[in-house]
Amino acid sequence: MASSPSPNSKLTMKLLIDTKNEKVLFAEASKTVVDFLFHILTLPLATVVKLISKNGMVGSIENLYQSFQDLNETYMHPQQSKDLLLNPTAAISSNEFCNLFPTIHNKPMNSSHFLIMAELDKEDDEEDQDEEEE
To answer: Domain for residue 34, yes or no?
Structure first.
């Protein structure tokens, strides 16, 4: 079981930066930092980034998503898939500290568990009734 970092713990990393091109060339970080960065991808935000990036979104979250997408499989734990983080199906509880690759069970969703609610404007409702009468 993963241990939670203490409230006073610091996340640190070493970066080698090309200041001329404003690019990070190399980063060295502890497992805690890597777990934190990958935890960001388990949030529904990863799904949003995937959808929005098709329309040219830029920013650090998209860069993190793209970097993880391009990560070579040799850097992964054995029998682990990047797909769990690249295509999340559920958010991890915020009170748990996320391991590098959380277990997410892909259970089929039963539509009876959802309630669909809609609100019609009075004008829209009247138009629908008029169309039905014709």
So the answer is: yes
Would you call 66 helix, strand, or coil by DSSP?
helix
pLDDT band at 20 (very low <50, low <70, confident <90, very high): very high
Q: Identify the band that residue 53 occupies on the pLDDT scale cut at 50, 70 and 90.
A: low
Mean pLDDT across 60-78: 79
Choose among 108, 106, 88: nearest CA to 98: 88
Q: How far apart are CA 38 and CA 27, in angstroms?
A: 15
Amino acid symbol at 74 = T
pTM, two decimals, is 0.38
Domain that holds residue 98: 13-102+109-133
Look at the chain and report how many structural domains it folds into: 1
Q: Residue 24 pairs with which residues in a beta bridge?
A: 17
Closest among 50, 52, 51, 47 to 89, alpha carbons compared: 47
Mean pLDDT taken over the chain: 67
Q: Is residue 4 part of a domain?
A: no
